[in-house]
Design brief:
53% of the residues lie in helices and 17% in strands. It contains eleven helices and eight strands. It has an eight-stranded parallel beta barrel with strand order 1-2-3-4-5-6-7-8, surrounded by six helices.
Length: 217
């Protein structure tokens, strides 16, 4: 499973990238706001840092304007993925931009039917939001499973990009289901390394090592 980092913070991306934990990056208007940076400037910096796809989101609501914004964003770098909302106009823009050879990430997906439409419109990625469904007491992981089944049934190439990841359990479950990609905040990715038994075992090793009175260096 590919790991995308859901942030526009350069330092956080660089830290994970140095460890080989970054296959791509996803951004959105809220993350751009949080970064306090100009969208074109910070997106270009991320593209220069990361080899994989970098999602940059349009803010227009009408198809023609989405297409124009998508073309502008795609000029930033070869690894830009134009991020479009899963609306009828977004699907129209997806069809045009994907037809031009641009990578497209269709976002804010909350149903398998929406995911089916995105695949037929040529989306490179579909971004179902797990956490926001869970917030409504619906099963976000069930949506990932339903999309996986539909795409496998018909051989769609659109990659399932599990989004709105809130916990390490979300990551594990998405991997077991067969999501192609997951995108998560840096802090969630770093938490994947943690386990209470690892901490407990390391603590005991350090106590025993101290008793030996030895040094390695």
């Amino acid at each position: 499973m590919k790991f995308f980092v859901d942030t526009a913070e350069i330092d956080a991306i660089a830290e994970l990238n140095d460890l080989g934990m970054v296959d791509g990056v996803t951004t959105n208007p809220s993350l751009i706001l949080k970064s306090g940076r100009d969208i074109l400037e910070v997106t270009k910096e991320i593209c220069d840092l990361v080899d994989g796809p970098v999602s940059a989101e349009v803010v227009a609501m009408e198809a023609d304007a989405m297409i124009a914004e998508g073309r502008k964003l795609a000029e930033i770098a070869d690894n830009i993925t134009v991020k479009l909302p899963l609306t009828w106009d977004g699907l129209k823009a997806c069809k045009v931009l994907s037809g031009e050879g641009k990578m497209v990430n269709v976002t804010l997906c909350f149903s398998a039917n929406q995911a089916l439409l995105a695949a037929k419109a040529g989306a490179t990625f579909i971004s179902p939001f797990i956490g926001r469904l869970d917030d409504m007491h619906l099963d976000g992981l069930e949506l990932i499973q339903d999309i996986r089944t539909i795409y496998d049934n018909y051989g769609y190439d659109t990659q399932i990009l599990a989004a709105s990841i809130r916990s390490v359990n979300h990551v594990q479950d998405c991997a077991l289901i067969g999501a192609d990609v997951m995108t998560a905040p840096p802090e969630v990715i770093k938490k994947l390394a943690g386990h209470m038994l690892t901490d407990k075992g390391l603590d005991q090793f350090m106590k025993d090592w101290a008793k030996t009175g030895q040094n390695i260096l």
